[in-house]
TrEMBL record:
It comes from Gossypium arboreum (Tree cotton). The keyword DNA-binding does not apply. Gene3D superfamilies: Cytochrome P450. This is Alkane hydroxylase MAH1-like. Belongs to the cytochrome P450 family. Transmembrane segments: none annotated. The keyword Magnesium does not apply. Its cofactor is heme.
């Protein structure tokens, strides 16, 4: 593939947002990312526009927003905090990048499909669905740097990265087919009162609102859409949180300013004690928002606001309640990957800020 690389935010906005129609991804891109099917990452022109408009509409709906707030609060309170508390209590060194990836994978799966793969627990289990995503991302990276003939040979012999890619594809197909089947059954006997109380995931919206989308919402479309959205939410948000946390750990003045800003939003009697912040308390925090944007260098996507809600919930919980010490023995450097992971993880020792 002939490539032109740019890191200028203005260029990224020009290509990805303002003039997207002038830069179709084309058949080679779709072949490279064939596992994503006809989802939004692989789509061009009218199909891309229709998918983007539909996705934005569902994500802006008050029922999805309601579901988002409940999901993120539950995951922070019952998933993230117990692990961090356990590490702090026993003086353990933990890989925060891995914790963030588990958090965002669980959250993405719940928000998109309504089902929780439960990667984020004290046992830190190896979940086949999550590992399948990691394997195919790695294989796609190799497709970009190896001769196409070598990739075809691996694919034909079913070995190496392409062998793992094929196995990952089957795992993803099987899991998403099960999710879709169960969701269709639930949608057929949907209780409107229950939906109003609990909110609604995106897969349910695509199934129940298919007439209004103008899209053919068959099982393949739902599979492709769900996978694209999970991928979009999983690694980008966790990677942003990883580098943000690392940057904050290197700048104590920044950390203190974020804590001061958080305390300005709560009654004096409730300061200097453990607490979680709700969305209303953190949504207008200028300094925290600016620090996240600085770590991102700008993010442009349909799920931008959803990602910011997640990041602010996690960042406020960690920074306000804990001291995070990054281990100098394990250098924090970028890995060669499709998404900018760290090479060695974000190894940290954590202690409680308040008793």
């Amino acid at each position: 593939m002939n490539l032109v690389a740019t890191c200028d935010p203005a260029n990224a906005r020009y290509v990805m947002s303002c003039n997207f129609d002038n830069f179709p991804k084309g058949p080679e891109f779709k072949q490279m990312f064939d596992i994503l099917g006809d989802g939004i990452f692989n789509s061009d022109m009218d199909l891309w526009k229709n998918q983007r408009i539909t996705a934005q509409g569902f994500m802006r709906h008050h029922l999805f927003h309601q579901f988002l707030l409940r999901t993120i609060r539950d995951k922070v309170e019952m998933g993230l905090m117990p692990i961090i508390d356990h590490a702090a209590k026993h003086g353990l060194v933990i890989n925060l990048e891995d914790i963030f990836r588990r958090f965002t994978f669980d959250s993405a799966c719940i928000l998109v499909t309504g089902y929780d793969p439960s990667c984020l627990s004290l046992e830190l289990p190896q979940v086949l669905f999550s590992k399948a995503v990691d394997y195919f991302e790695q294989a796609i990276l190799y497709r970009h740097v190896r001769p196409r003939s070598f990739t075809k040979l691996q694919k034909w012999l079913n070995i190496g990265q392409e062998g793992k890619y094929k196995k990952s594809w089957k795992v993803l197909d099987d899991v998403l087919a099960e999710y879709t089947c169960q969701k269709r059954k639930e949608a057929n006997k949907l209780n409107q009162e229950l939906v109003s109380v609990d909110g609604v995931d995106l897969l349910t919206s695509y199934i129940t609102e298919k007439e209004s989308t103008g899209l053919i919402c068959d099982d393949k479309f739902l599979r492709d859409t769900a996978l694209n959205m999970i991928i979009a939410a999983k690694d980008t948000t966790s990677t942003a949180l990883t580098w943000f946390t690392w940057l904050v750990s290197k700048h104590p003045i920044l950390e203190n300013k974020i804590i001061e800003e958080l305390e300005s939003k709560i009654p004096i009697a409730e300061t200097k004690r453990r607490r979680l912040f709700n969305v209303d308390e953190v949504k207008n925090l200028v300094y925290l928002h600016g620090a996240l944007c600085e770590a991102l260098r700008p993010r442009i996507c349909s799920g931008k606001e959803t990602s910011f809600i997640q990041m602010k919930a996690v960042a406020s919980a960690l920074i306000y309640n804990y001291h995070i010490h990054v281990m100098e023995e394990t250098p924090v450097v970028p890995a060669v990957s499709v998404v900018q992971h760290t090479k060695n993880g974000l190894m940290t020792r954590i202690s409680k800020r308040w008793e």
